[in-house]
Amino acid sequence: MDNFMNMTKEGHKPELQRLIDLHAVYHDAMNGQLIMAPINLAEPGKKILDSGTADGTWLRGVRSSLPAQHHYFGSDIEAELFPAEPDGITYFQHSFQDPWPASLVNTLDLVHVRGSLAGSSPKRPLNVVKNLATLPKPGGWIQLMELNAFDPPAENGPAMKDFSRMTSEVWTGIGVGDFANGLKDMLEAAGLQHVREKRFVTEIGKRARPELRAASVNGVSAPVKPISAVARDLETSFTGEELDGLQGRVRAELENEGGRAEMVCAWGQRPVDV
Questions:
Q1: Contact assessment for residue 159 and residue 220, using Cβ atoms and an 8 Å cutoff
Q2: Contacts with 242 (C-beta within 8 Å, 6 or more apart), sequence order
Q3: What's the helix, strand, coil split of the chain in %, to 5?
Q4: In 3-state terms, what secondary structure has residue 4?
Q5: Is the C-alpha dihedral spanning 84, 86, 91, 92 positive or negative?
Q6: How many whole angstroms separate alpha carbon 12 and alpha carbon 15?
Q7: What confidence tier does 13 reach under pLDDT thresholds 50, 70, 90?
Q8: DSSP 3-state of 89
Q9: Taking 50 as the threshold, does the pLDDT of residue 142 lie above it?
Q10: Which positions ≥6 away from 133 have C-beta within 8 Å?
Q11: Which residues contact 100 (CB under 8 A, 6 or more apart)?
Q12: Chain mean position to CA 216
């Protein structure tokens, strides 16, 4: 997994642009509703944390959509990704594998994680979710969202299917497994209640709306290279030559034919009577 982390850090601007592009694609697929948990966000003063926030794109998207004033926190293992001007958001360096600052434990109204649970390795994603579960106050919520690499849309072309297969083999090889399809179960195992799940299909490349085509291609194809680098250190069904050519194949297929990806979103509430 170190290869993936190191390669995504090579030049922060391309990585941050990829995250911005993906955010636009997810925002579109979710019809602009970034928070699925049933929180009364019209009431001001909520405390919202985004773990794995990078430059805070998700937090700023949420903030811009809400008329009420809330308190926003962004954590990431890579402080270099934080914006130079925090603009009212509190950023702090932290790995979601480690105990959380005592000042945040049992205090948050919403804890959000998107596209980060592969970083649980060498621990299990369930360990991370249980650690996240120390943060909400009684009645607070956790919302998780991850790409379903193990059961991709059947209509995808061969390059996207190979990308999904490679990713699923890497997630298995590093010990995190099929965590996207287990989000609901993990939230329940962490003691949360009223757990719900919703799946969103994102349109990519030629299938996407014209204004999102380039962004969706970049957002989806850019991770192929760092995940392929991890695959080289594992036993997979891919040859080195196949890994070398996969990113170009994925990009060309998305630009010429388009594709789809399924995102799994699950949310749950900390019991009030604890």
A1: no
A2: 162
A3: 40, 20, 35
A4: helix
A5: positive
A6: 5
A7: confident
A8: coil
A9: yes
A10: 142, 190, 191, 192, 270
A11: 94, 131, 134, 135
A12: 15
